[in-house]
Amino acid sequence: MKSIRMMLVAAVAISAAAFGAATPAQAADTALGIDVGNIAWEQFTSTNADVKARLSETGTNCNFYTGFWTDPNNDRRDGTSASTCGKTTDGYMYRDGTKSWGAVNWRARAWCADFAKFAFYWGGAKYTGLNALASSFKTYGQTNGTWHTSKSYVPRKGDAAVYDWERDGVIDHVAIVTSYEDTSTDGNHYVVGGNQSNKVTHVLHGNWESGVVGYTSPAAK
Fold first, then answer.
1. How far is residue 126's CA from residue 140's CA, in Å, rounded to a whole number?
2. Which of 14, 22, 210, 214 has the maximal Cβ count within 10 Å?
3. Cβ distance 190 to 202 under 8 Å?
4. pLDDT tens digit string along 146-173?
């Protein structure tokens, strides 16, 4: 009888796991995180010809997202500079206080952070403190109280996954979490990121593997 009871308990546990019973460590996606994640996802999946053209850089690091942040016609330009690289496609910017669809001159520099910052910005998150360095997302999270390093933390949609490939303390990359495969801390998460093999790509990573050192959730303005 005891063994039968144990088998029934085990069966219930397996059934709960099969239906995705959430662990205490898993928090629900936030509305802000969903918006940020959707912006990243839409960059990857859009059928608009101009947006599709952004999926690949031209030459070395010549890309739309750096162009967006450094375009002198953009009211939201970040004040940094990058070399022009001869390509132009249309996109949304605020020009003279009005959101409009028009020409954006592409510029060249390492651009994973420019892509992630674009998702935070158009997703409605606070973006003050973010710059062209992937490490700025760690600093942003620490400043705003949204930096997560606990191994029990399950990333949510819209989080910025921050990577240190060599585990040498130097932040190398950042990408936006778009979905999570299961509710366990050893599950897999998907990210959309820029400058991944010189493209915008959708990639599957293991949680706390692949050089992930932490996650920054977007902060409200």
1. 10
2. 214
3. yes
4. 999 988 888 999 999 999 998 899 999 9
User: What does the chain come to in residues?
Assistant: 221
Is residue 62 within 8 A of residue 106, CB to CB? The reply is: yes
Sheet with 62-63: list strands edge to edge.
62-63, 98-108, 83-95
- Name residue, tokens 């998460």: 189
- Rounded CA separation 108/195 (Å): 11
As a whole number of angstroms, the distance between CA 139 and CA 147 comes to: 8
Residue 39 in this model has a pLDDT that exceeds 70: yes
Are 210 and 163 spatial neighbours (Cβ–Cβ below 8 Å)?
A: yes
**Beta strand pairing call for 83-95 and 199-206:** unpaired
The DSSP element (H or E) to which 83 belongs, if any, is strand 83-95
Nearest to 59 by CA among 210, 198, 194, 187: 198
Instruction: Say yes or no to pLDDT of 209 above 50.
Output: yes
